[in-house]
Amino acid sequence: MPLPTLTSRFADELPQAGVPWPPATAPAPRLLFWNAELAAELGLQPGPGDDLAALFSGNALLPGSKPFAQAYAGHQFGGFSPSLGDGRALLLGECVDTQGRLRDLAFKGSGRTPFSRGGDGKAAVGPMLREVLVSEGLHALGVPCTRALAVVATGDEVIREQVLPGAVLTRVASSHLRVGSFQYFAARGDLDNLRRLAIHAMARHGGADALELLRGVAQRQARLIAQWMNLGFIHGVMNTDNMTLSGESIDFGPCAFMEAYDPATKFSSIDHQGRYAYRNQPLIARWNLARLAESLLPLLADPDGPQADMDAAVAQVTEVIDAFPAWYDTALREGQRVKLGLPAPGAAHAPLADEWLALLQQGEADFTLAWRRLADALEGQEAALHSLFMDSTGLAPWLQRWRAACTASPAELRAANPLVIPRNHRVEEALSAASDDGDLRPTEQLLAALRQPFDEGADARYTQPAPVGQAAGYRTFCGT
What we know:
Elements: H1 9-13, E1 18-20, E2 30-34, H2 36-42, H3 52-55, E3 68-70, E4 74-76, E5 79-81, E6 89-96, E7 102-108, E8 123-124, H4 125-140, E9 147-159, E10 163-173, H5 179-187, H6 191-205, H7 210-231, E11 233-234, E12 256-257, H8 281-300, H9 307-340, H10 350-363, H11 367-372, H12 374-378, H13 383-386, H14 395-405, H15 410-416, H16 424-437, H17 441-450, H18 468-471
Antiparallel strand pairs: 1-3, 2-9, 4-5, 6-7, 7-10, 8-10, 9-10, 11-12
Helix pairs in contact: 4-16, 4-17, 5-6, 5-8, 6-7, 7-8, 7-9, 8-9, 10-14, 16-17
């Protein structure tokens, strides 16, 4: 089967939303990772004559591809930048997958663009393989996310704090539309292109008007953030240019999974104030959605029209933003209900979940393993659960109340609570081996485990938290 021909709907419909731009040439491309399952889903079935390293480094292009550096704005750690854009990424085009869904293909690390702002536009092997491990891990856990199709070593050297081997990632997404895409045109007062962008977004993600578009984005983000919270996932850089309209997680530079439960946990080396700490993620999501609402206001009321019309529009979007906490809480509680094996949804279950989280924090228990060991406790084997707690005061009476309420079987609990997540120390080990020694085996072995996160037979190397001394002070970086 020949390679599919890409379309360029975004670039064709919104030429002012970016710049056509070629990827940099890779001097010695070499394929490091190929996602055969995702490729089949996309209808990408390369033949023996197709050079994957050339196609996914930018030295050659898929049929129909018109590389396009997207423009967007964004609030970064609360400060507004009116012009950000793809400084090291390129939208290659769209294809219809085997289920009839339109999907974007994009490069990351493909060289300088007009939006690079002095950067080299390149990426290193480690951060690009990190995108593979985290996104495939999230995907296996059922979390909507962009996914990695390929990683190609370029043969270039990338200079950061040290010299690193360069790489290009090919990312697949439902779209690359983000809150910052709307902020870009809104900040310029460009109503025509703002309207065109909204029409394009509604065609991709639903909604009959700007208000319905906003509501759909808010509901998708409420469900997404609830999933993050129920897995202990911390994104690390929830800027408005990193919040998608699709409700997919995107950009996995400073992200990490929490081990010992502490709502104040943060990992990003540049998040000095803890703005994007674990407990703040729902609040930041709502804040970002308010910025989207502001950007959409000119589509709901003529800025030069009667003040009453604008007041009515403000009231409409405010109603959506004010509804977000309830949508989020509903999604969070439903996830907790399933993870605790409780019967049909009901507010009566919330105190049991809240008490459980308080016990986890008090006992500094590993978040992932504590949920998982509930299945053992249901079978009468509590030792493994108790061993996770530095202080298990209050655990025994809570377990008694929980057993009385639980209606799930141990197997159902194990199917709801993963055993394997991308543990930070294992991710770092794998990336160091790949970057420093050119050894991809640790990455491949970890990836295999991450793709079976609920498997009770998982290798113990991938189920256990890092030693306390190693976990203390762990920091993540953007990789730029």
